[in-house]
Amino acid sequence: MTRANWKTPKAAAIAGILFCVLLLAVFWLLRISVPTDPLESGDWLRTSSSRVAIALNLVPFAGLAFLWFIGVLRDRLGSREDRFFATVFLGSGLLFLAMLFSAGAIVGSMLAAFALYRDTFVDSMMFHFARLLAYNVINIYAAKVAGAFMVSTSTLLILTNLAPRWIALVGYALAILLLFGSYYAGWVFVLFPMWILVLSLYILLENPE
Length: 209
Fold this sequence. Notes:
Layout lengths: L2 H4 L2 H25 L10 H4 L1 H29 L5 H34 L8 H36 L4 H17 L9 H16 L3
Helix pairs in contact: 2-4, 2-8, 4-5, 5-6, 6-7, 7-8
């Protein structure tokens, strides 16, 4: 494939769809395996470690797909991009990736520590610290950074006419839920990949070649 092929709208769309599928798979595996209460007892380490491990192995691929999506979309904006919102767009996207990988590393460390200290780890202070840390990174900080990414991306879509205005308006509405509702309802995190999916499908359908 030529360099131009890697930069087509279709490349951004495929990367966005892949990111959505992988992140939703990660979210689903974790939701059916790990209780939502960050103060839970840790029984999932004994019963669901294999499903959690599968989810963690998908995280790097989801992150790389998202990074590719950001790169191709930014290239499509080109000289039309607003420097302020483009900076927030890129910075919030990279921050989200950093937090996603950090949370994955924390949970992976919990699995490794449990394998070494199976009888004592879930009763230790270290388990509860790591569990609360992973919860805060994803449900509070990563969710809010994802909201900032949606706001900046939606603004760029309006300024550059890269996508219909309704996609941007939906992005604003969902971003508000992420910014203010993530602490109360963990499920709102799925709104982020679902919005990326809608945007990616639009790009793909508008640029089939």
